[in-house]
Amino acid sequence: MNTNTNRFSENVTAYDKNGNIKTLQRYGQTAASSYGLIDNLTYTLNGNQLTRVDDAVTASAYNGGFEFKDGVKQANEYVYDANGNLTKDLNKGISDITYNVLNLPTGVTFASGGFIQYGYTADGIKRRMMYKEADGSGNLVPTVYCCYVGYETGVAKLLLTEEGYVTLSDKKYHYYLQDHQGNNRVVLSSSGAVEEANHYYPFGGVFASSGNVQPYKYNGKEYDGKKGLNLYDYGARMYDAALGRFTTVDPSAENYFNTSLYAYCGNNPINRIDLDGLLLARILIYKVL
């Protein structure tokens, strides 16, 4: 019998009294045929706000696999504004994040150059995203969301459907196979061929995948990996799966006074999902006899 214990797992080993994660261990692939500890994280907090993360594991995950990137070693690696919104993440090289009156991010600036900009409707629905690479070209690459159609550089690319999406360049359908949490595990072509397959850690990191044909992954949320941002867009908030924390305060915090304002799913990602960054939902699985 082949024993695969702890090949891919996440273990939260300590919380503080507010329900913030204090220590987290993550196991994954360390070499072509080896597996082991890839993250051994210690969180430093000021109240509910994260100020620093230290990783005791110095080696990197194999072949660019999912892990926490410990980019700097200093006292204040994370900075927040007066509303509790994250404005700097030095481990990701983010030097500034600006927000609108709804506490939604409008701009992300990277210390290495380049930026990402977001635009919203008056009620907070994302309609535009533009990013510029740090190559000095000055070219903006816009993505526009119009109802269920996504445009890139003015060209319609995707039409989202309840079952998946249509690539408008060739007018072909693609279908999601989802698990009980709404995670997109497999993307199928209209002929039934597997185009993408994803396997997730409990807090949402993709530890193994084949293909990367579309951005909607964990809980069916859009994953923004541009320039190393590596956040899921839940609508009301952005989520960092490497840390198991949202980047801003829960807008419905008065309903969840017994846990941290930044915690994901009340730190229970196995039995709960977050629908939009505002509301927890318990997963109910029924056995039919």
List keywords for this structure.
289 residues; mainly beta; RHS repeat-associated core; twelve-stranded antiparallel β-sheet; four-stranded antiparallel β-sheet; globular
What does this entry look like structurally?
The chain has 289 residues and is mainly β. The protein has no helices and 24 strands. The strands form 5 sheets. It has a 12-stranded antiparallel β-sheet with strand order 7-8-9-10-11-12-13-14-15-16-17-18, with no helix packed on it. Strand 8 (105-110) and strand 9 form a beta hairpin. The chain is globular and about 50 Å long. 30% of the residues are buried. The model has no long low-confidence stretch (mean pLDDT 91).
List the helices and strands and how they pair.
Elements: E1 9-15, E2 21-31, E3 34-46, E4 49-55, E5 78-80, E6 86-89, E7 94-99, E8 105-110, E9 115-120, E10 126-132, E11 141-146, E12 149-152, E13 155-160, E14 164-167, E15 172-178, E16 184-189, E17 194-200, E18 206-210, E19 222-224, E20 231-233, E21 238-240, E22 245-246, E23 272-274, E24 280-282
Antiparallel strand pairs: 1-2, 2-3, 3-4, 5-6, 7-8, 8-9, 9-10, 10-11, 11-12, 12-13, 13-14, 14-15, 15-16, 16-17, 17-18, 19-20, 20-21, 21-22, 23-24
